[in-house]
Write a structure and sequence with these properties.
alpha/beta, 32 helices, 5 domains, Beta-Lactamase, Rossmann fold
Length: 1011
């Protein structure tokens, strides 16, 4: 490969979430090819300049990369007429010889909108500036998703914004909320639009994602740390940058590439704003590292913005001590070499760029003042510092110097890229370009020394800082309007007296403020201080103050001039970031991150003293029922009470944290042995058995507790948490409400459970589930009354798994809801077969899980199944367990009442093994009591079981309920149940579970025998 190419990059800005993340990757790719990068920053927000129209460095640059439409039509035409390769990033090339590198905006936005649809959102709004190419592609992706999923497009749900910023997202949301078309989700063209949407929704009392789901685009650093964290699409910056450079070099060395466009895929990043659980937002350790890096870098960036404001103020103060501003004293971030060239006419009237100022912080050569260069040959490549040579770490930055009056010329800078410029638009050298242009303008107009106050006025116009000027000779402080506004947020009067200012300062900060103003006299150090001032009521605002002393020719301090910034929001954000990072928002307990830090520290202490520690995982049993029946607000209040009570069960030196949901984790930081773990667990379990009183209602709880010991069971933080989790799950699988200590055998059991769960997730769609039917026979007539539906799982390896093995897992993972719906539909379809085969009065019984029973729309689902299958309501009997029936009596009475109104029969299954009574069940609208098989098994030999069965049958009949005995296996059991006048029996004696075809044959055989 030929080395030593110069690659020109034209971009509106060189910092921020978009340009600042592309440029470093481009620079690295160019360096790896032993070439140079010239970066031309063209945008000037003050003057409204958005594109480059002058052929700066045109003869020097071998190939061009344009980031977004950053070149004017005339410059593009010049490129189109030349033989120089050029690559357009983020937009399509307007000329055939140009090539484009584009993020796959359309497909990725389609994926994001489909994700919202998969969450159940049917009304989705789009917010974005569709006049931009990439935003328009995202809008088309939104349309594609609606079309693919069969949803209607409604123009009223599209808001076309003027820009991609927060305020536009906020305004768009207000407009949509005033409309009359319902919607539940937003697809935003950019993350800043999306964050504006969230701010607006939250300010109006809406919850994200509970009331509205939101997805953004770009994955800026604020997205990961927002609350809620923003689901978004991650721009493939590195891939786009590398592809643009690759194409440029391929065009230089080999000619035209095969394709005129390179489409780079973008990835959907799922977080919590779309409705996915916050605790599962990190798909990998790299995602978590990305989140934590964003938190850290945003804090650093917020701090550096404040410090850089001061540095720029200080630089301007230093610059104005001379007759003219010199570029070496302005704020250029990390740039160490610079050259200012201004337009001048030669003897022939031709305009050239003439060097008027230059500097080098490292002592490198600089071009001589007065040397002239044509525009297309600037900058002076013979004088560029060594770091800009092919493969060097420095970038050459070119920027036009313009003001309202005229086009002054160009400045060239050399230095490394600031790594923080890819987090926010943090490059304050932008202000230095403006300051330089304004300084040149004023020098032209007045040609005299400008006062320090005039220079501070420039800073005042280009920053949000307040400016103050303390005249030491008169002992009066002058505040500009901005400073006065900052300090006037108090009921106390602000005057030009220093004492009046001091009274505004918080008492605890006054000493530090006095010392700060003394130090410059002694050490010649500038003033830098953060302090609080009084606000309204008891509120205090945070201020960052910077300044320096002005000395006269005699060396006497005559003034102190500086700036001040309201950093209250920054301080609040820092506190919020810390809280989000280390504290659970609901309970105030430590979160997983802080817990792991504390556990790691405790492990090191135990390594030193030779003692042990314990990790305990606590999961509340069946807590989901509370959320489903009482609502999440009640559930949250109950969790807060539980957190307080659990915290009271451990010592002050121990830690209890909330992992999310109803899961807690405990660190017993110093123990002698397992006995202490057992003692703490018993205390917690006893505490949970006591009723929790909430809004007049009592709640009874239990928990599954797992524990492991360090260093006996694990050697690192993650393994200890995992082993405690395994032990806890083993407890839950065995009924809960107790403690399990980890053993290595639990790991293998967990693997088996995982494999079963994975298989069960696909069992339904693979057709592995099958129904059997066990006959129910009337004892008074001997006829077949109906059949109970029994579910079987036939795995691909030929095994048949019984319900007792997989139904608890299905309930725990909520897979029981789709499985239960399928069972209900298939059972009713088989019943229709039986009716058509001449069995119109048969009743099909179907077991309903607790999760199905908690569905508010369950009665409507039953109605739909009856309509779709064509069977009558009296042909269907729904069985619920005794435990489910009495768990929430108010809900059960309401739900069963709706089902009875439909006309279906209701049976209470497994009756007799719970703590309820028939008198309690009298409140429920049920028809049948199913006697648990445990009473039937030994009723002939065991008089107690016989007495219980007799009592249940007699009391049921007295309440108008019929009784079905389950588990009848002998003739003796049948005769005894006849004597007790039991209505129906079910069991191996009258028929084992069978297929639908076998049941039809069974019924016909019994009918034939009866006749």
């Amino acid at each position: 490969m030929v080395q030593g190419y110069r690659i020109g990059v034209i971009a509106p800005h060189l910092d921020g979430e978009y340009y600042g993340r592309l440029l470093p990757h481009m620079h690295q790719a160019v360096r790896e090819r032993q070439s140079q990068l010239f970066a031309i920053q063209v945008a000037d927000d003050y003057l409204g300049i958005t594109a480059l129209d002058e052929p700066i460095a045109f003869d020097l640059v071998d190939a061009w990369i344009l980031i977004l439409p950053s070149a004017s039509a005339s410059f593009l035409e010049m490129l189109g007429n030349s033989d120089k390769p050029f690559v357009c990033v983020g937009f399509q090339s307007p000329y055939p010889q140009g090539y484009s590198v584009l993020a796959d905006n359309r497909t990725s936005m389609k994926t994001a909108v489909c994700h919202l649809i998969d969450h159940g959102h049917m009304g989705i709004a789009f917010v974005g500036n569709v006049t931009q190419y990439d935003l328009y592609e995202r809008y088309l992706g939104y349309r594609d998703a609606l079309e693919e999923r069969g949803l209607p497009f409604d123009e009223r749900l599209v808001v076309r914004t003027d820009d991609n910023l927060l305020e536009s997202g906020h305004k768009a949301t207000e407009q949509l909320l005033l409309g009359d078309i319902p919607f539940t989700a937003f697809a935003a063209g950019t993350d800043l639009n999306a964050l504006g949407i969230i701010d607006c929704l939250q300010s109006r009392g809406y919850s994200v994602p509970k009331d509205f789901a939101v997805i953004g685009y770009d994955d800026i650093h604020q997205a990961a740390v927002n609350y809620p964290s923003l689901s978004t699409i991650r721009q493939p910056f590195e891939a786009m940058a590398n592809e643009a450079v690759r194409i440029a070099f391929e065009m230089l060395e080999k000619g035209k590439p095969d394709a005129r466009e390179s489409i780079i895929p973008a990835r959907l990043v799922i977080r919590s704003s779309c409705g996915c659980a916050e605790r599962t937002q990190f798909s990998s350790a790299a995602e978590f590292d990305h989140y934590m890096q964003s938190l850290s870098q945003l804090r650093i960036s917020l701090h550096n913005i404040t410090v850089n404001n001061y540095k720029m103020t200080q630089g301007l103060i230093l610059a104005t001590k001379d007759d003219k501003i010199h570029i070496s004293k302005l704020f250029w971030n990390l740039s160490h070499w610079g050259c200012l060239a201004l337009w001048e006419e030669d003897a022939n009237g031709e305009k050239q760029l003439v060097v008027r100022q230059a500097f080098s912080k490292n002592g490198d050569r600089v071009p001589p003042v007065g040397k002239a260069y044509p525009l297309h040959r600037f900058p002076p490549v013979d004088f560029l510092p060594p770091g800009t040579q092919p493969g060097g770490e420095d970038v050459v930055i070119l920027h036009p110097v313009k003001s309202d009056l005229q086009n002054w010329g160009y400045i060239a800078l050399a230095g490394p890229l600031d790594p923080l410029n890819n987090f926010v638009a943090n490059d304050l050298s932008r202000h230095s370009f403006t300051i330089l242009a304004v300084a040149l303008e004023r020098e032209l107009l007045f040609d005299q020394i400008r006062s320090i106050a005039e220079k501070l006025e420039i800073v005042s116009r280009t920053t949000n800082d307040g400016i103050w000027d303390w005249n030491l000779e008169t002992n009066k402080i002058h505040w500009n309007i901005r400073a006065h506004n900052i300090l006037s947020r108090t009921s106390m009067e602000l005057t030009n007296e220093p004492r009046a200012f001091m009274k505004l300062v918080h008492r605890e900060d006054r000493k530090a403020l006095r010392l700060c103003f003394v130090q410059p006299y002694r050490t010649n150090h500038p003033i830098q201080l953060e302090f609080r001032i009084r606000g309204e009521g008891s509120h205090f605002s945070w201020i960052y103050m910077a300044g320096d002393i002005v000395w006269n020719d005699a060396g006497k301090a005559i003034r102190i001039i500086g700036s001040m910034t309201d950093i209250t929001e920054k301080k609040d954000n820092e506190a919020r970031i810390t809280q989000l990072a280390y504290q659970d928002a609901l309970t105030g307990l430590p979160n997983r991150l802080l817990y792991k830090d504390e556990l790691n520290a405790a492990m090191k202490e135990r390594d030193r003293d030779g003692k042990k520690l314990a990790v305990m995982m606590i999961d509340l049993d069946r807590f989901k029922i509370v959320n489903d029946t009482q609502g999440h607000q009640t559930g949250d209040m109950l969790l807060q009470q539980v957190a307080q009570e659990l915290n009271a069960c451990v010592k002050e030196s121990d830690i209890i944290a909330r992992l999310g949901g109803d899961e807690f984790i405990v660190l017993l930081s110093r123990i002698e042995g397992v006995e202490e773990v057992v003692t703490v667990a018993d205390k917690m379990l006893r505490m949970l058995t006591k009723p929790f009183l909430l809004e007049g209602q009592k709640f009874y709880l239990s928990a599954s507790v797992g524990a492991c010991i360090y260093p006996c069971h694990g050697e690192n933080v993650d393994s200890l948490i995992r082993y405690a989790d395994l032990a806890m799950y083993h407890t839950k699988e065995n009924g809960g409400n107790r403690l399990e200590i980890y053993t290595p055998a639990l790991s293998s059991k967990r693997v088996e459970r995982f494999n079963m769960e994975s298989g069960l997730r696909y069992a339904l769609e693979r057709g592995e589930l099958a129904l059997n039917f066990q006959p129910q026979v009337s004892l008074s007539t001997g006829k077949v009354h109906g059949a109970e539906t029994l579910l079987r799982w036939n795995t691909p390896d030929g095994k048949t798994i019984q319900p007792g093995e997989f139904i608890p897992l299905a309930e725990e993972t909520s897979l029981i809801i789709p499985i239960g719906q399928w069972v209900l539909e298939q059972a009713c379809l088989e019943c229709r077969r039986w009716i058509r085969a001449g069995m119109p009065s048969l009743v099909i019984s179907v077991n309903i899980s607790a999760l199905q029973f908690q569905q508010e729309n369950f009665p409507e689902l039953v109605r739909k199944v009856l309509r779709d299958t064509g069977i009558e309501p009296f042909n269907l009997c729904l069985e619920i367990t005794e435990h489910t029936a009495v768990q929430n009596m108010e809900h059960s009475i309401s739900m069963l009442g709706e089902l009875v109104e439909i006309g279906v029969k209701i049976a209470i299954d497994d009756f007799g093994i719970g703590q309820s009574s028939l008198l309690l069940l009298k409140k429920l609208p049920v028809h049948i009591v199913k006697l648990d098989p445990s009473f039937i098994l030994n009723m002939i030999e065991d008089s107690d079981d016989d007495a219980i069965a007799k009592a249940i049958i007699e009391m049921s009949h007295s309440l108008g309920l019929s009784v079905t005995a389950e588990g009848v296996e002998t003739e003796g059991q049948l005769h005894r149940l006849q004597q007790l006048q039991c209505d129906r029996i079910q069991g191996f004696f009258t028929g084992r579970p069978m297929t639908s075809d076998q049941f039809i044959a069974y019924f016909l055989e019994i009918s034939s025998w009866m006749s």
